[in-house]
Amino acid sequence: MFRTFCFFIIALFSAMTVSTALAGTKRPAESWNYYHFDGTAFKAGPATDTKPFIAVKEKSRPMVLLAQTPNINSIDLPEGAGAISGICYVQNSGGKLGGNEGYAPCAKVPLEISSGGKQLVTVQTDENGYFVVVLAAGTYTIGSGPLAAEIPVERGITSLVPLRAGKRMVD
Questions:
Q1: Distance in angstroms (rounded) separating the CA atoms of residues 139 and 161
Q2: Per-residue pLDDT for 37 more than 70?
Q3: Residue 43's domain spans which residues?
Q4: What CATH number does residue 163 fall under?
Q5: Does residue 74 lie within any of the structural domains?
Q6: Is 133 a member of any domain?
């Protein structure tokens, strides 16, 4: 009787260990994370108004969306590459600039991307000021002069970058 009880306990423990190990190997489906621009930085979650937002997923090319959708066609990043996605904008509120929306997107603006002082590629913002570029892992400079930003790119990761191209001045 005691031997049967011990055998039952060992069998139960073994079954629980195997099922736990199998459950640990099954990763849940990678899901998309959404980020919207609030006028100064990217915040988690889709935009609550009709403005675009960025869908980000590890090892996938980021997507600029106008509405949340259940099925996003994932495009894998090339091996050893990451992505930079962001918005180019002009600040039009804050300080003496009150009562405005916060920013105006810079549509159809060419952005130079360089590394080590050498220009590599130029990417153009869309009609909402957003851009996406896929690059090999490394450190890159986006823009030029005082408006340039140095951005690290990691393998399989998307860096979100708000590029302020200027500020509307008040008299």
A1: 13
A2: yes
A3: 29-167
A4: 2.60.40.10
A5: yes
A6: yes
Instruction: Give which of 162, 144, 131 is closest to 37, Cα–Cα.
Output: 162
pLDDT band at 100 (very low <50, low <70, confident <90, very high): low
| Measured distance CA(126)–CA(104) in Å, rounded | 13
CB 130 within 8 A of CB 85: yes
- Cα–Cα distance between 137 and 81 in angstroms, integer? 5
DSSP states of 92-146:
--BTTB-SS-SEEE-TT-EEEEEETTEEEEEEE--TTSEEEEEEESEEEEES-GG
Tokens representing 109 are 């603006």
DSSP states of 45-108? S--SSS--EEEE-TTB--EEESS--S-----BPPTTEEEEEEEEEEE--BTTB-SS-SEEE-TT
pTM for the structure as a whole: 0.77
